[in-house]
Amino acid sequence: MLRLIRRISGVTLMLTLVACTPAPEVAAPFEMEKPVQVEAVYGLMFNEALVGNAFFSMQIMADGSYVIEALTIPAGKMQQAEGHEVLESSRGNYDSTQIRPTEFTHSVIDGEHIEVINLLFDWESHALRLVNGDEKQTVRLQPGTHDRLSYLLAARRLAAAGTGAVQVQIASPQASEQTRLEVRGMETVEVPAGSYRAVGIARATPEKGETRMLWFDVQSFPLPLRVSHSWDGKTVQMVLETLSQTPGDPH
Fold first, then answer.
1. CA contacts within 13 A on the Cβ side of 76
2. Enclosing domain of residue 213
3. Are 130 and 118 contacting, i.e. CB atoms less than 8 angstroms apart?
4. Other C-beta atoms within 10 Å of 241: how many?
5. pTM, whole model, 2 decimals?
6. Is 251 inside any structural domain?
7. Count of domains observed in the chain
8. Which residues have C-beta within 8 Å of that of residue 225, sequence separation ≥ 6?
9. Over the stretch 162-182, which tens digit does the pLDDT of each residue have?
10. What is the DSSP string of 51-70?
11. DSSP-derived secondary structure for 181-235
12. What would the pLDDT profile of 17-66 be if each residue is shown by its tens digit?
C-alpha cells in the first residue's frame, strides 16, 4: 500500500503532515518512538453502505521523525468525479512530550486536474503558512496545533493514558477548529479486521448536534480501528479492514 501512495504522490508530490501537543503526555504501551511501519486499509461507510476506501501508512523512525500518508478513493455517493482521489500526508517530529508538525499537504486529483494546498508549521517563528498556488497567507501558530492527520497521534496517546481530556486546535486548508479530545472508556469493537478491546475517544467541536468518535487498540496498533462522525441521522464511518505492521527504518 505504501508503494501505491508513493506512486501517486510522485505524480503530484509527497504530502506531509505533522503535529504538536500542548503539554507533556503519558507514554503509550505501544512504544511508537521505536522504528515502526504500519499500513492499513479502511472501508468508508455512509449509513452502512460502502462508499470508498482509505489507505493509510505510518512510519516512525528511530530519530523521532514520522510520516503519515492517507489516500482516499471515494465511490458511489461520495465520488464527485471519475478518478477523484484525495491524497494527504504528514511529516514531523514525535517524542514522549510533544508532537510537532512541519508540513501538511492536501491534494485533490480529478482525472488530469490536480489541486495542491500546503500548510507549513514554523514553530520557531510561531507562524502557520498556507500556500495554495499563488495565494499565500500567514497566521500565528498556536501551541497545541495539529493538522487533520497529526491529531490522530494525540488522540492515540490520550487513549493510551486511559483517562483525561486534552484541548487541541486542528488546522486545515479551510479553517482551524477548536477540538476537545476526551477518553470515554473501553469496549469491544468489531471491525472487518477482527474483534478488539479498544479505548474510545470523543472528539467534541463547537458544532452542535454532531458526534465524533475514534477507537484505538492501544496495546498493539497506533492507527484507529474505527472513526465515526454522526449528524442529523446520518453517519460516516472509517472501519479497519486489513493491517500490517513491521519494523521501520532505523535511521
1. 12
2. 2-246
3. yes
4. 14
5. 0.83
6. no
7. 1
8. 189, 191, 193, 196, 198, 215, 216, 217, 239, 240
9. 999 999 999 988 888 899 999
10. EEEEEEEEEE-TTSEEEEEE
11. EEEEEEEEEEETTEEEEEEEEEEE-S-TTEEEEEEE-TTT-SS-SEEEEEETTEE
12. 333 333 333 334 445 556 889 999 999 999 989 999 999 999 988 888 99
